[in-house]
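Input record, target 12 of the design panel.
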């Protein structure tokens, strides 16, 4: 009997191999270049090739979760946690992947993914991975904080209808900022279909009318935060705004109305004072009013009693004055003990020609008990003396903006920096008229703490700072990552620009 011949000649001795179930087979005959399929084996080979293709497809599907751009590290970590070796009858290991978990478990995992990130486009990408991911990513409990202002989806009424019906039934915080085509019909759909809504942002929605604000007041019973900044002029007419405040003021904690026409300044403040005891944030920056500036007063003591929880107050470009009051009433006032941010920036050079805006008395009465103040903006305030900030009780101010402020012109810059040099993170002293000697002393104060300095951003544009002071500042503040030297009169022309990142490191090396 003749020996059987293989493709390389006479067949050698038969060798037995043992393969672990987790190992892959070595080269098969069907991978050889001269392998020919006999008619009887064609059907078996087709089945074998089909199984290989299915296996490769499954491997690609299982790898999607680890290759996705968004949430890459989180998904990899979760995959490791949920992957385990399970004993089988044959003793081999099998892998449990994320896509094989029940949808309710995936929902719980996805909550950690979208906790700090926007649900879009993360959940949309997850829903394309497999059927289980689609079911889990569509669960309304994941769509509680939704920001639709970035342009991830088309801002149309049909899109909003579909989202409200299939995704936003449990939404709590919704941002529809810059939806130029949003009208009253869209607001009606949202307010009637989202009963759990607590925060609504309608920034720059120009086509809304007063009917939208009425719908919000009537349907959003749990609303605590509303942003209508730079909205349509019709949406905030005085009667409608007053109706909203009276209807929802008890739960209102944050109200942003900047850049709008609000009718009467005094009536607006009076409504907020009488109906918003839980107010924590108020922003009416840049608003215009129908009344004359002579009649615009800011009743500090009355508001301090009405808003004991106030944390953020923004009155930028509001030219008002404080009404006279007795010293006894000032002493009895509780102040704003929870206040953390105060913005009183004025229009450029406006206060040089009138008697309105923040002065020493305004600041002292407003901040008498504000020990928690972290953010203070007094840019362009032209009525503050060099002692204006000395009596402020805040001991750890972090962000200070005093561009074009008269405090520096009266020699108060060094005192101000000496008071908060240990806690300042951001400082704006651009376009001040302080003499170069005062500026050098201020830079010396900032550089005293060395490695313990927390200053990371400083704006010196248009100031009389000299290169020696800049060198001292860079050496004494290692945490600095942004310095603006544009338009500095005493700096060489090649250095007058903004420095950050690698450019700032090069500047340190060049001038050291």
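The sequence produced for target 12 reads:
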């Amino acid at each position: 009997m003749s020996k059987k011949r293989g493709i390389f000649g006479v067949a050698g001795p038969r060798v037995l191999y043992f393969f672990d179930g987790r190992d892959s087979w070595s080269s098969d005959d069907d991978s050889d270049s001269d392998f020919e399929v006999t008619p009887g084996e064609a059907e078996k080979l087709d089945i074998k090739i089909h199984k290989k293709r299915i296996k490769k497809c499954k491997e690609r599907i299982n790898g999607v979760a680890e290759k996705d751009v968004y949430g890459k590290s989180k998904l990899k970590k979760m995959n490791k946690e949920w992957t385990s070796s399970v004993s089988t009858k044959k003793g081999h290991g099998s892998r449990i992947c994320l896509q094989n978990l029940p949808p309710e478990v995936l929902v719980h995992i996805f909550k950690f993914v979208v906790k700090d990130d926007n649900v879009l486009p993360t959940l949309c990408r997850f829903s394309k991975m497999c059927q289980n991911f689609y079911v889990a990513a569509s669960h309304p409990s994941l769509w509680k904080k939704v920001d639709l202002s970035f342009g991830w989806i088309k801002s149309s009424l049909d899109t909003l209808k579909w989202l409200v019906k299939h995704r936003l039934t449990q939404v709590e915080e919704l941002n529809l900022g810059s939806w130029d085509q949003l009208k009253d019909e869209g607001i009606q759909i949202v307010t009637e279909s989202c009963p759990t809504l607590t925060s609504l942002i309608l920034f720059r929605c120009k086509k809304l009318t007063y009917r939208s604000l009425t719908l919000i007041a009537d349907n959003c019973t749990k609303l605590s935060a509303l942003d209508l900044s730079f909205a349509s002029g019709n949406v905030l007419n005085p009667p409608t705004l007053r109706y909203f405040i009276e209807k929802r003021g008890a739960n209102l904690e944050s109200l942003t109305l900047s850049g709008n026409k609000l009718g009467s300044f005094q009536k607006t403040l009076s409504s907020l004072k009488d109906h918003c005891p839980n107010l924590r944030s108020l922003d009416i920056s840049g608003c215009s009013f129908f009344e004359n500036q002579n009649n615009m007063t800011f009743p500090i003591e009355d508001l301090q009693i009405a808003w004991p929880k106030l944390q953020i107050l923004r009155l930028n470009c509001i030219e008002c004055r404080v009404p006279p009051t007795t010293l006894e009433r000032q002493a009895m006032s509780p102040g704003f003990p929870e206040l953390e941010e105060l913005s009183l920036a004025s229009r450029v050079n406006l206060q040089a020609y009138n008697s309105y805006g923040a002065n020493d008395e305004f600041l002292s009465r407003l901040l008498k008990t504000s020990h928690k103040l972290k953010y203070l903006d007094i840019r362009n305030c032209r009525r503050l003396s060099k002692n204006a900030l000395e009596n402020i009780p805040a001991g750890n101010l972090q962000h200070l903006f005093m561009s074009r402020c008269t405090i520096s012109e009266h020699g108060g810059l060094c005192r101000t920096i000496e008071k908060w040099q240990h806690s300042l993170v951001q400082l704006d002293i651009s376009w001040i008229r302080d003499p170069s000697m005062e500026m050098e002393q201020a830079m010396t104060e900032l550089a005293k703490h060395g490695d313990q300095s927390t200053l990371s951003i400083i704006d010196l544009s248009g100031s009389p700072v000299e290169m020696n002071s800049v060198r001292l500042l860079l050496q004494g503040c290692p945490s600095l990552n942004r310095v603006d030297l544009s338009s500095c009169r005493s700096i060489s022309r090649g250095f007058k620009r903004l420095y950050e990142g690698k450019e700032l490191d090069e500047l340190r090396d060049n001038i050291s």
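The chain is about 35% helix and 10% strand.
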